[in-house]
Amino acid sequence: MPDKNITLSEMLTPVLNKTVQHYLTFTDQPPVSDTKEFTAYHNACKAALAHIILLNKLTKQSNQNEAQTSLLDLIAQAEKENENDNVTPDEFS
User: Fold this and answer.
1) Mean pLDDT of 39-62
2) What's the number of domains the chain is made of?
3) Domain that holds residue 40
4) What letter would DSSP give residue 3?
C-alpha cells in the first residue's frame, strides 16, 4: 500500500514516464506492410497518445492544486478540459 503522504503528482509522474517509455519502445518496432496490421498499430499508437495526454493533464492539475483533491475529481476535471480542448485520438491520424 502506498505511503499516505505521497502526493498524486508523485504517484502519476512515474506512471507517465513509464507510459511514454512503453510508447517509444512500441513505435520503435519495424513498420508492417499488411494494411490490417498497420491499422491496428496506428490505432494503438493513437490510444497510447490519448492516454499520455490524459496522464499529463492529471499530473499538471495535481501540481497546480496545493490542496489534495480526490483522484476522481482530477479525472473529471481532465476529461472536461479534454472536451474543451477538443483533443481526440483522431487528431493524431
Assistant:
1) 86
2) 1
3) 8-92
4) -
